[in-house]
Design a protein that fits this description.
The complex is a heterodimer of chains A (746) and B (661). Chain A has 746 residues and is an alpha/beta fold. Chain A folds into 4 domains: 157 residues, no CATH class; 222 residues, Up-down Bundle (ABC transporter transmembrane region fold); 147 residues, Rossmann fold (3-Layer(aba) Sandwich); 72 residues, P-loop containing nucleotide triphosphate hydrolases (Rossmann fold), CATH 3.40.50. Chain A contains 27 helices and 15 strands. A 6-stranded mixed beta sheet of chain A has the order 9-12-13-6-14-15. In chain A, helix 6 packs across helix 9. The radius of gyration of chain A is 45 Å and the shape is elongated. By secondary structure, chain B is an alpha/beta fold. Chain B has 4 domains: 200 residues, ABC transporter transmembrane region fold (Up-down Bundle); 114 residues; 138 residues, P-loop containing nucleotide triphosphate hydrolases (Rossmann fold, 3-Layer(aba) Sandwich); 75 residues, Rossmann fold (3-Layer(aba) Sandwich). In chain B, strands 6-7-8-3-9-10 form a 6-stranded mixed beta sheet. In chain B, strands 2-1-4-5 form a 4-stranded antiparallel beta sheet, with no helix packed on it. Chain B is elongated, with a radius of gyration of 36 Å. The two termini of chain B are 72 Å apart. Classes of the chains: A alpha/beta (746), B alpha/beta (661). At the A-B interface, helix 2, helix 7, helix 10, helix 12 and helix 13 of A face helix 1, helix 2, helix 4, helix 5 and helix 7 of B.
Chain lengths: 746, 661
């Protein structure tokens, strides 16, 4: 994990911005339900009339209110209303200004709401919402009082009310028998929701009396709130898009940096470190693993932060609405986590089985493909089909089990969510009955609990995702944290110029890092300029290992390798290697032209030099037969040329260096014997003054070498010429016997 | 940990509706996302899931035909599928109805509150309780239906996957060798895993999602229509907008996904190349250059990576916006209609609920064609593979297996004017004739890549000659069942193919019903017994996947034992041994000699002694047999063989060259 943070560091500003934006988005998302319900509750149900201070009232209505309040003995509070309403008389300039919306002003004086400071408005609102319902009721029951606005109240509302609303109205019929004082006291004790219903009822009548087009009012309200809602959505969408923008740049950027870090590091690896990972695994690490982490960061920027924000926000809002029911959410979340935990506890081990079976299945297919000849030769097609079928069945069975366990998650979650809703209504209604919360609060609580619930689902998936990504992170960290064992010395020595190329092994012992046994035991010899040193032995005898010590692909475990008498450990790596023309066992070419491939050996080599190297390597034909010549393209891995051609190009790449030291690590294996001989004879002149190392399994090509080293199991069994060794070295003789014509052996 | 986490977040900005406690739309969307990611299996089988919809669109050549074939596969499960559809429909209906009923609970509560206020009554908890219980029962049964549906669907999907895989593997074994000259193994493996997996994905997930989405859409649409056709039109206007938007984004992002894939490929290629040639890079100091190239590719990749990610991340927020836009539009038109007294407030409320549950499925449906296209492309590749040419099976041969049973084979082999080429029209064997008598040894020699295994392939009928014929004991093999011809030959190749099973099973591969004594006898004769006993598990040692737990030489000996046990009348041997120590080499040589005893043998020869002792030497170059005869005859010819022989076995071949010139 620390590795991820290290890579995220350059992007801290983006991270901060993402969190801030997610905060904005979460708030917008949490606010949205309110707008949605306002459109329905006020816009549709109440014809867009809010239980709030109306912009315009008939002057007579306010007077009626004043009177009512005086009769209650609360007349002094009326000042609050007077403070925010001003009189507009017919014919005045103000009247003309508002006449279009409020036609009544042309004939009757009205009171118009003056936007005042918040405190005054709040005071006025409080008085209005407390007293106006009484006026509505009184007006309804006092019947024909001429100054009462009730006369303007329509007999039937123009819009059908839903059951809850009509309930409010009809149930007040019970009040008829009470005394006015009792009624007023009763209204004071009313639920605020019921009061606002009354306000809305009254205002609707009031507005109609004012000549307002209620339909237009409703539309304008819906449009206004709708616009606000879209604005909030827009904020949410904009933040989400910005988060997406920052997140994707962040994730892709981090991935880029990681990939680059891994690659650069691997390029620094000596063969020792490189071997400790397999090539395939290194490739996977720098590609797939990085992609995994990229995905995690991408998700993380959105989920990891968003879920807690929305969860906490939801909790705060929910508790603000109905603190008594927190335990329902807690219980639901608890059950949810237990279920998810359980399902994953069952399924995750099975996932591993599935993975194994998939690998096994692929293995059988691969074997069927690679062993097709053998399978058919032995007529084992049916047996193979049975073998495959067994794995296929196992896989199918396990897969089915896993899927069916996983399928349980979705319905279970649906059930939990719905049980939560149902229990909130059940518990909530008792709380409502007890008077501790209101119906609206209960509904809101339900909304928020859903949001909290989803937040936890998201978080639990993050908890599953992060550990999986952490495997990738570990694998990458392993690469990045690997110490490179072969580095440049701090105070490099200088080689006496010109470099002759003499190589000396002094009591060299070598053991691969982490291995139990030495691969090379106490090897000493000197290879002089102008001579060829052949190294022969069976596979695994340590031939390649021995020559790979010369360019310091590995460092000797004990003893020394010297170049012109200087310990190669004291030389700069780049310098040391620039004196060596190395031809590896496996010929590896790069995508690009032939010229580019050869220039890999010597940057800036002229075409003449390249042609010379190609001629010595007997591969000019490849250039000559193609219209592109030296620009003839080599595809990835050199797959468009034959093995022998690849090997010869690889030889040419080393030769173009004109190095004091050449190493041919079994580099003629893919060549036919004629070409092999031609190259070697051409080499004799070309590398006249160089030290040549020739690793091989064949005796014939090295019979004339100045020095032959016979290796067996990492030990030198003999050093000398062919003739000497034939006499003294049994291992050499055995090898030679199986390869040469008897008459040549003498 | 894969691309499929995306949907969950993309669907993120949630705006729970105003009314019912659980919106069907939101609930569906959420749980679908959950399912999508939870059903995911890690590793090689990882599919492309939902994100696949955003991947570059692969197009199938024949969409209709492929789908027809796919449906044919689904045929046996039609009742299951029908049940799934019914269940999905019912579950969806229940999910749509649920919130409505729940709404009546709150209404009852509200009425009760008011009655309590006015002392005209109290909250009717019995009624509320009943409603809640009803709703609960509804939800639980909906969930149960959902589960049953999931149960059936997963069963069908898994079984179809099983059948597809089975068909592919048996197909592989019926295809002629020629077919594999042009198809690489990776492609076939990819058929087996990726393509089968894609089909599985679609069947197990997308299918039920599609049904649910479509059902929700239809259900909501019908409900909407019953309320008000005018508002329905307004709501429907949202759909082309949504689809347009989805298409727009998908198209854009596909462009970047393509570039991303492309550069990911380049980058991987570069990494593979450089890591694969690490030693060369080190030897020639190419590290800096490699890093520079890498950085260049890497930053191009970064550009397309973030752009494609970004584009796919904005899909959900935008869809949300469209959804909310539709909501407002419906609300406004509803208000207008209400003012005209054309709809009731309650209807508008209900209508708005349905609008809310509309967005999610619309997005899904908008993407269906993409998913289907990809499935079709995958399915088409599978079906193409399954439809490819097969070699005639034994049952179709003129000579039945039965008639040859128990017949003793002498081992006389005749080639009569055989012409053959791997690529039609490019013959490499031209008019080859030879007669090999029972018990004779034929050495096939030639430089690497001369096509020495071609004869083997013809003899074993892996390939058929273009013209001419091959006869064994006078019978043209073309007319014999393949399995019989192959059973006459024992084969030991340089490519020591063993399968990952026990040593015992590997030896008994050629004769599954072999008795223990026979097996031991063969093992001893092939010098296998001695080293196998050195393993603690003995003959029950399980060879691992790369068969790295035994040495190359031991593998070779095992293949000899395998051939020995089968006791074939004729032999095909490849003497080439690589990575074998001197001692084992000697054992192999001895074992091979023992094996050849008294059998007509075709030996791809590398050893001097073998060549010299051969009754007939076939010299091959560039695929063709250039010379044939005995060692002496051929040396006297001073032709290709002489040159080859001298360069291979003698450095100083000058004298021989002189002799010939």
């Amino acid at each position: 994990m620390r590795t991820v943070f290290r890579f995220l560091k350059p992007y801290w500003l983006s991270v901060v911005l993402v969190i801030a934006l997610l905060f904005v988005q979460a708030n917008a998302d949490l606010a949205l339900p309110d707008y949605l319900s306002r459109i329905v509750n006020i816009g549709i149900q109440q014809n867009g009339i809010e239980a709030d201070l109306p912009p315009v009232l008939r002057a007579s209505t306010l007077e009626a209110m004043e009177k009512l309040m005086q009769s209650e003995g609360t007349g002094d509070k009326f000042v609050a209303l007077q403070r925010v309403y001003t009189l507009v008389t017919p014919g005045s300039a103000e009247a003309r200004a508002i006449a279009k919306t409020w036609p009544l002003v042309q004939t009757e004086p009205v009171m118009s709401l003056n936007p005042a400071d918040g405190e005054a408005m709040d005071a006025a609102r409080e008085v209005f919402l407390a007293e106006y319902p009484k006026l509505v009721i009184v007006a309804q029951f006092s019947g024909s009082a001429s100054q009462s606005p009730a006369s303007a109240m329509p007999a039937a509302p123009s819009v059908q009310l839903d059951s809850a609303q009509s309930a409010v109205m009809s149930d007040f019929s019970a009040l008829a028998s009470m005394s006015p004082q009792a009624i007023l006291a009763q209204i004071d004790a009313l639920d605020p929701i019921a009061k606002s219903q009354l306000v809305v009822r009254g205002l609707q009548a009031e507005f109609e009396a004012l000549g307002v087009d209620i339909g237009a009012l409703q539309i304008s309200y819906i449009v206004r709130i709708g616009a606000l809602m879209l604005l909030v959505t827009l904020v949410s969408v904009a933040s989400a898009i910005l988060v997406g923008y920052l997140g994707s740049r962040l994730a892709a950027g981090t991935a880029r940096d990681m990939r680059s870090a891994v690659f650069t590091k691997v390029e620094d690896f000596s063969l020792a470190e490189f071997d400790s990972f397999s090539t395939a695994s290194l490739i996977t690490r720098s590609t797939n693993d990085v992609t995994q982490i990229q995905m995690m960061i991408m998700m993380g920027t959105r989920m990891l932060f968003y879920a807690p924000i929305i969860g906490v926000g939801g909790v705060i809002r929910a508790l603000g609405k109905a603190s008594g029911m927190w335990w329902i959410i807690a219980l639901a979340v608890g059950v949810l986590l237990v279920i998810i935990g359980l399902v994953f506890a069952i399924v995750v081990p099975k996932f591993r089985t599935v993975q194994k079976l998939v690998d096994r299945l692929n293995l059988v297919v691969r074997e069927n493909l690679s062993g097709m000849m053998v399978i058919r030769a032995f007529n084992q097609q049916d047996a193979e089909a049975t073998r495959f079928d067994k794995t296929n069945r196992d896989l199918t069975g396990t897969l089915l089990y896993v899927t069916r366990v996983m399928v349980v998650l979705m319905p279970l979650m649906t059930i939990i969510m719905n049980v939560v809703s149902v229990s909130i209504i059940w518990v909530g209604s008792h709380e409502v009955a007890a008077g501790s919360i209101r119906v609206g609060d209960m509904m809101a609580f339900m909304q928020y609990s859903m949001q909290i619930f989803f937040a936890f689902i998201m978080m639990s998936f993050m908890f599953i995702m992060v550990p999986r990504a952490s495997v990738s992170i570990d694998r990458i960290t392993q690469v990045i944290d690997t110490k490179v064992s072969i580095r440049d010395p701090e105070n490099p020595s200088q080689l006496p110029k010109p470099v002759r190329g003499e190589i000396e092994f002094r009591h060299v012992r070598f053991r691969y890092p982490g291995a139990q046994e030495d691969v090379l035991h106490d090897i000493s010899f000197i290879a002089r300029p102008g001579t060829t040193t052949a190294i022969i032995g069976t596979t695994g005898s340590g031939k390649s290992t021995m020559v790979s010590l010369i360019p310091r692909f590995y460092d000797v475990t004990e003893g020394q390798v010297l170049l012109d008498g200087v310990d190669i450990k004291t030389l700069l790596l780049a310098e040391l290697r620039s004196y060596i023309g190395f031809v590896p066992q496996k010929s590896m070419l790069f995508t690009g032209s032939i010229a580019e491939n050869i220039r890999y050996g010597k940057e800036g080599a002229s075409d003449d030099e390249i042609v010379e190297a190609l001629s010595i390597s007997q591969i000019m034909s490849l250039v000559e037969e193609s219209p592109e010549g030296l620009e003839r393209q080599i595809s990835q891995g050199g797959m468009n040329v034959s093995g022998g051609q690849r090997q010869r190009l690889s030889i040419a790449r080393a030769l173009v260096r004109r190095a004091p030291v050449y190493i041919f690590d079994d580099s003629f294996s893919a060549l036919d014997y004629k070409t092999d001989r031609e190259i070697r004879s051409a080499l004799k002149t070309y590398a006249r003054d160089s030290v040549v190392f020739l690793v091989t399994q064949r005796v014939a090509p090295i019979r004339h070498a100045e020095q032959i080293i016979v290796l067996d199991d990492g030990s030198v069994m003999g050093i000398g010429t062919h003739e000497q060794l034939m006499r003294t070295c049994e291992v050499y003789r055995d090898i030679a016997l199986s390869q040469l014509k008897e008459e040549e052996l003498a | 940990m894969n691309t499929n986490k995306k949907p969950l977040t993309e669907r993120q900005p949630q705006n729970p509706g105003s009314g019912g406690p659980v919106e069907p739309g939101a609930a569906n969307g959420r749980s679908q996302a959950t399912q999508t990611q939870s059903q995911r299996r890690p590793g090689a089988m990882i599919g492309r899931g939902r994100a696949q919809a955003l991947m570059p669109g692969e197009k199938s050549r024949d969409f209709k035909g492929t789908m027809k074939q796919l449906f044919a596969y689904l045929g046996p499960y039609r009742w299951g599928l029908l049940a799934v559809m019914v269940l999905a429909t019912v579950a969806t209906i229940l999910a749509i109805v649920g919130p409505k009923i729940l709404g009546t609970a709150t209404t009852t509560l509200f009425e009760g509150v008011v009655q309590k206020m006015t002392r005209s009554g109290d909250i009717d908890f019995t009624k509320i309780g009943n409603i809640l219980l009803t709703v609960l029962a509804l939800y639980v049964s909906s969930a149960i239906l959902q589960y049953i549906q999931g149960w059936i669907v997963s069963g069908i999907a898994v079984k179809i996957t099983y059948t597809l895989r089975k068909d592919i593997i048996s197909k592989i074994n019926r295809m002629p060798f020629r077919a594999f000259d042009t198809t690489n193994h990776g492609e076939i493996l990819s058929r087996m895993t990726n393509d089968v997996d894609t089909v599985n994905q679609t069947l197990s997930q997308s299918l039920s999602h599609m049904i649910t989405s479509v059902m929700t859409l239809i259900g909501a649409f019908v409900m909407m229509l019953t309320i008000s056709w005018q508002m329905t039109i307004v709501a429907i206007l949202m759909i082309p907008l949504s689809i347009g938007l989805v298409r727009f984004i998908v198209k854009r992002s596909q462009k970047y996904f393509k570039t991303q894939q492309e550069y990911l490929g380049h980058l991987n290629g570069h990494i593979e190349e450089v890591f694969g040639a690490h030693i060369v890079v080190k030897a020639f100091g190419g590290e800096k250059k490699a890093v520079a190239t890498f950085d260049e590719l890497n930053s191009t990749l970064y550009q397309s990576a973030w752009k494609s990610q970004f584009l796919s991340s904005i899909m959900m927020p935008l869809m949300n916006f469209v959804g909310n836009l539709g909501y407002v539009a419906v609300a406004v038109s509803g208000g207008w209609l209400a003012a005209k007294q054309m709809v009731t407030v309650g209807d508008i409320q209900a209508f708005l609920q349905y609008v809310r549950s509309f967005t999610q499925p619309v997005t899904q449906v908008a993407n269906i064609s993409n998913v289907l296209q990809q499935t079709a492309a995958a399915a088409e590749r599978i079906f193409d593979f399954l439809a490819s040419e097969e070699e005639p099976q034994d049952e179709q041969m003129s000579v039945g297996v039965k008639t040859l049973e128990g017949r003793r084979i002498e081992g006389k082999v005749e080639f009569r004017h055989v012409h053959f080429g791997y690529v039609p029209g490019q013959p490499i064997l031209k008019d080859f004739s030879a007669t090999i008598l029972p018990g004779q040894k034929v050495a096939i020699v030639g430089p690497t890549g001369a096509g020495k295994t071609t004869l083997v392939k013809l003899l074993m009928r892996f390939y058929e000659p273009e013209s001419g014929e091959i006869l064994i004991d006078g019978m043209p093999i073309r007319e014999l069942p393949r399995s019989v011809v192959r059973s006459w030959f024992g084969m030991v190749l340089q490519d020591t193919w063993l399968f990952s099973g026990t040593v015992r099973d590997n030896i008994a591969y050629g004769k599954q019903d072999a008795r223990e004594e026979e097996l031991m006898e063969a093992a001893k004769a092939a010098h296998v017994d001695h080293f196998v006993r050195a393993f603690p598990e003995g003959y029950d040692l399980v060879l691992n996947e790369e068969t790295t737990n035994i040495s190359q030489g031991q593998k070779q000996l095992l293949t000899i034992a395998r051939a020995m046990l089968a006791k074939p009348p004729m032999l095909i041997l490849d003497e080439a041994t690589s990575n074998v120590d001197t001692h084992t080499e000697l054992l192999i040589q001895k074992a091979m000699l023992a094996l050849m005893q008294g059998r007509t043998s075709f030996v791809i020869a590398h050893r001097l002694s073998t060549i010299r002792d051969a009754d007939l030497i076939l010299v091959m170059n560039h695929g063709d047999i250039v010379e044939q005869g005995t060692h002496e005859e051929l040396l006297a010819k001073c032709g290709f063989y002489a040159e080859l022989y001298n360069s291979q076995f003698d450095e100083g071949g000058e004298e021989q060259e002189k002799l010939c010139s």
